[in-house]
Design a protein that fits this description.
Elements lengths: L6 E7 L2 E2 L4 E9 L5 E7 L5 H4 L5 E8 L2 E17 L5 E9 L14 E2 L1 E2 H12 L3 E5 L5 E2 L5 E2 L5 H11 L2 E8 L6 H5 L3 E8 H6 L5 E3 L7 E8 L12 E2 L6 E2 L17 H11 L1 H19 L17 H7 L10 E8 L8 E6 L7 E14 L10 H9 L1 E10 L1
Helix pairs in contact: 6-7
Length: about 400
Amino acid sequence: MPSDSSAMLKVMLGKADISQQVVRVDIEDVDRGADKATFVMDDPGATNSDGIEENMDVRIELGWESEYALAFVGRVRSVRSLANSGGKHRVEATCLDLSSRFMKPPPIEGRQHVGPLDKILADIAKDTGVPVGAVTVDPMPTWTEDKPLDQLNRTAWQMIQDIAEEYHARAFVEVNAAPKDSEAVKAAGGEPKLYFASLQSLLDQAPMGELSYCRGMGSLLDYQLTRMGSGASPVASAAVANPDDAAAVDSFDLPPTAPDVQPAPSASKIDRTAAVRGEAAAADYAAARQNAADAEALPAEQRAQRHVAGTPSDAPLVKRLIQQDQTRKLGYRLVGTAMGTVFLRAKGSVTIDGLPSMTTGRWYVSRVNHIVERGTLIEREDVDARARAARQKRLTFRSKLVATR
């Protein structure tokens, strides 16, 4: 928690600083999909809505005097004008981060990708202008010429999210400053980069910080705890007792079952087929039965080998499907509000103290909303003009979070 109490906000729309006109900012940071930012600004002349256009660049910095960071870089996606019954005009803009650059439709003929995942992501990102930050997944998924990665009718972002879900990872665009970045990028607070990180690598990182609840005195102001389904494996197994020695077993060695003897095609069956469907169908039926008989006579190593659809022919796929969700082992979900803090981000863990004993400890953060408001959106008649003006200049900063454990 910062020692000072002065919240700070800077909103750049293109090259224009509109911070003084903004009355509310809500930056939604999620662990799946695209981050979103919504800002509301005063529009007394009902003209600002005409000056905000889609695809305009947006940069939002917020925090405290001693804890300040670049929190969002993106583009305007939609604009709407607001007016209340008192005739007060405002304009609201909704923005998405630069993952929107990956949302272009694929070519009509489709697209196939070959190679390791980090190379595929680098090739895709090259077309968008968004650099790749890091790809941390082990083992690295790889696609070959005979089994390529088909994009089909998905956008690049949809395809990347599907891969992340299959490999228990998170794919996101985040604003960060790395040690190898240029001094200009570091001075600007970082730049957006594409990251693909396994869930385990995210959980292996140290907690982002600590929140504490102490009846309104801690950094966590309020919270709600609920129970949900735990992260049990989606595939279950059962064991039974051996009737001979009472030991738990999951399989028995039974004598092999003799294969069913296939009856030879009778002349009457061929005649009936010919009478109903014609001579050509009868000849096909007889040839098919003969081929089946010939195949059974071949040695096992010479028979055609194939996997029937629906069987676990892909062993790594089976392993991925039965992995436990590490973010919800105990089956708890927390929704809370904390004093505004820029260190709190989705896709990481945080330590929370002051909760009931079974829930105190480390939590995985799946969503954070950083909300900065200027004064209040409700005017009161019993407040004098000087107090109202001072309140309208004051900024409040809160962070709402959703976490699982």
